[in-house]
């Protein structure tokens, strides 16, 4: 068995989607379409928030931060994936692999933390509407964004650092990107610290963040139940609907992918890899659509820009 040390000088080979290597060229079409949709959709929302002073409220500033996280995640994943599919460019240096891993997993943590901040924003909007601007000042939004960034860096940075101490017996990663567990499985020797830390991060991020989001929505529902007016109840629920759909789009595919990876032993490898890619890309594709449909202010600004462009 060959043993490769000095991970800084290693080169890994990305297999792509196991069992579907002959279909990579065709698979590049939907992934290219998603790449284009993400760039246009998220870029358009960011542009609107930047140029329209009426969209400089805490909710839209947090939304802009979410779009930035989505764009960074996409740019870390799709360019290399499309090179693999279109040009069969499979090689990736170890340092580049660890960097990609850091940005992909780090932005997932940041995205989850921002969803918690947005749940708090919706709680204040529904339960303390008169104090909304006082509580959620621009400085607080900035601190929440920095806290989300710090969480992503602190939790994910140890992953590539722990991998650098390992020796590797295999160099072909059966994946389209440098997923943490996929790279850990390439190592020989003692990988228990890597596996335990990876599981710890998943439980902390998904478990704690979902608990905080659930707590916020529990308080929101409690407040909504007390409303006597049906119109006020509908308005309060509509205020939270876009964020609720984004939560579903973010966490359901991620949890489904994680469960199939751990207990779905009869599921073919290509299904695992496709699910792992979808849970990263689906939120980035759908978030601008959800907010564009559900948020009246964004719909009006888009219509205004389109009318101005056609005039």
Automatic annotation (TrEMBL):
Occurrences of domain G-protein coupled receptors family 1 profile (ranges): 41-291
KW Transmembrane (keyword) present: yes
TM stretches of this protein: 32-51, 58-78, 98-120, 140-163, 196-220, 241-259, 271-291
Classification via SMART domains: 7TM_GPCR_Srsx
Membrane disposition: Multi-pass membrane protein
Residues making up the signal peptide according to the UniProt record: none
Subcellular location per the Swiss-Prot or TrEMBL entry: Membrane
An example Gene Ontology CC term for this record: plasma membrane
Pfam families xrefs: 7tm_4
Protein name as it appears in the record: Putative olfactory receptor 52P1
